[in-house]
DNA sequence: CATATGAGTGACTGTACACTCACTCACCCC
DNA sequence: GGGGTGAGTGAGTGTACAGTCACTCATATG
């Protein structure tokens, strides 16, 4: 243990930390709207080193997205484990609540929306599909719900994304409450 | 450019044409990923003149989004008019089919996804909310369906956006068909 | 014809950004 | 203590792009 200001780490140890910073940074500005310099600042390292850890911006975004989708599945898992019964609809509901709780800070939600926006970049599209596959298959197999119920689960998840990104939950008009009704918000 | 080939028009007549080009251009690359020069080329005018017609890129995007949302409502209207009965659920279904037909070329769909992505830009967020308000209120009032049915209509619309942007419809796996099932695709 | 008005542009400016490279320095093993 | 390996950076480079401006020219009217 050197008492020195040894901030040295291994590249392999640093990469996931940078990916975690990238999640919040890209969530804020999207793919094109976020610079490597911002991710570097959030990570406490130089832009040059970010580029060394992730050879292209695209790869950095993919790493962030993978991190994001992993956290989503973990949240669903925790929700399912905490369900009051193992009835498929109850489990699915519990997953929905867990998801709503997870995205209270908006970062994981926004990143998914941004990813949709640039899914035509092949590597990003592939990562998005992989993430959706794990979410969907997990929701289906863990809950044991019908295909239709899982589809509905995902559909209302997407509606939730729209409500948050567009800021609909703060609108008092009837059309807005109609959309938000029953969608669990962050406190 | 040779003065012969230039066809003079009024700025007010040209603006909507440029907005229409902007719809497809922004749909392709999103807000940050699309340059004014691209819109200019698609419109057959110079970048400088695009900037004269729309003083900022932001305003240009807003114009495109407004055009987009207007076309969506018009499509819903046509769908409702073509419904086989005036039963609320039937009308809503007909609107869904009309929407699916409208977004066959993906441009109007992609633009909405891109708009979500940059909805934190105040003017764009406002335009998005305005568009969603007109879609939602129209769907509700024209169909006469329950709030819950309209909410479901919108939720599955969002799921449709996800399916198309992520390219899920081409995946033969079960998780993918589960999501796409019953969502009308373009031929 | 003379002059005004407005459409439309070429050339430019300032800036921002992804990525590179030569380099420094910390740590480890002898 | 000396040399090798890899962490980490400062200073660039090339490029792309939003917005500006002085200008040309077409048309309209007296």
Search tags:
disordered N terminus, DNA-binding, 187 residues, globular, mainly alpha, homodimer
Helix-strand blueprint:
The structure is a homodimer of 187-residue chains.
Chain A: H1 11-29, H2 36-43, H3 47-53, H4 57-81, H5 88-102, H6 107-117, H7 122-143, H8 147-165, H9 174-180
The first copy, chain A, binds a DNA duplex (30 and 30 nucleotides) through helix 3.
Please trace the helix and strand order of chain A, writing H or E for each element.
HHHHHHHHH
Q: Quick one: how many beta strands of chain A?
A: 0
Number of continuous helical runs of chain A? 9
Main sheet attributes: strand count, strand direction, barrel closure of chain A:
none
Greatest interface:
A-B, 42 and 42 residues
Q: Quick one: overall form of chain A?
A: globular
Can you characterise this structure?
2 copies of one chain form a homodimer. The first copy, chain A, is mainly α. Chain A has a domain of 118 residues. Chain A is built from 9 helices and no strands. In chain A, helix 1 crosses helix 6. The interface between A and B is large, with 42 and 42 residues. Chain A binds a DNA duplex (30 and 30 nucleotides) through helix 3.
